From TrEMBL:
It is an enzyme of class 2 (transferase). Its EC number is 2.7.4.6. Keywords: ATP-binding, Cytoplasm, Kinase, Magnesium, Metal-binding, Nucleotide metabolism, Nucleotide-binding, Phosphoprotein, Transferase. InterPro entries: NDK-like_dom, NDK-like_dom_sf, Nucleoside_diP_kinase, Nucleoside_diP_kinase_AS. Major role in the synthesis of nucleoside triphosphates other than ATP. The ATP gamma phosphate is transferred to the NDP beta phosphate via a ping-pong mechanism, using a phosphorylated active-site intermediate. This is Nucleoside diphosphate kinase. Homotetramer. The gene is ndk. PROSITE patterns: NDPK, NDPK_LIKE. It comes from Sulfitobacter aestuariivivens. Its cofactor is Mg(2+).
Length: 138
């Protein structure tokens, strides 16, 4: 089984969509093996999204991620990374397939309700950034 890292973003926690989004994960066969609700500082959001430092939307993205609580989770399942990306849908909700989280819940390309790791190496670093080994309960 593979593990991936997920964030339920501020636009979704603010609208009380945490449960609805977790249901999408579970219905797709992904198990929540770790979960915590936290409120990032802008600096912490900046560190997490450091790969996007040079992108024009970086500052806006960090502001947004620090604007309200997030729910950080580790999801486990067969092909969890790809499966999660599938359930999330395209970055821009206008392009997201019907039934995906972003198609149903996202407000815009920036405020798009969820984050998911895009590869095994990023999953590993992102999980370690938010969780200790003891907090991962398979
Ligand atoms: P993540 O799972 O959050 O990494 O999304 P992604 O892999 O589908 O998108 P990407 O890594 O390209 O971008 C990371 C995040 O930056 C997106 O999820 C958006 O929240 C934000 N983002 C991407 N493009 C734009 C944009 O054009 N404008 C704004 N404001 N935010 C953007
Ligand atoms: Mg990404």
């Amino acid at each position: 089984l593979e593990r991936t890292f997920s964030i339920i973003k501020p636009d979704a926690t603010k609208r009380n969509l945490t449960g609805a989004i977790v249901k999408k994960f579970e219905d797709a066969g992904l198990r929540v093996v770790a979960s915590k609700r936290i409120h990032l500082t802008k600096a912490q959001a900046g560190e997490f999204y450091a790969v996007h430092k040079e992108r024009p939307f970086y500052d806006e993205l960090c502001e947004f991620m620090a604007s309200a609580p997030i729910v950080a989770q580790v999801l486990e399942g067969e092909d969890a990374i790809a499966k999660n990306r599938e359930v999330m849908g395209a970055t821009n909700p206008a392009d997201a397939a019907p039934g995906t989280i972003r198609a149903e819940f996202a407000e815009s390309v920036g405020e798009n309700s969820v984050h998911g790791s895009d590869a095994p190496e990023t999953a590993k670093t992102e999980i370690a950034y938010f969780f200790s080994g003891l907090e991962l309960v398979g």
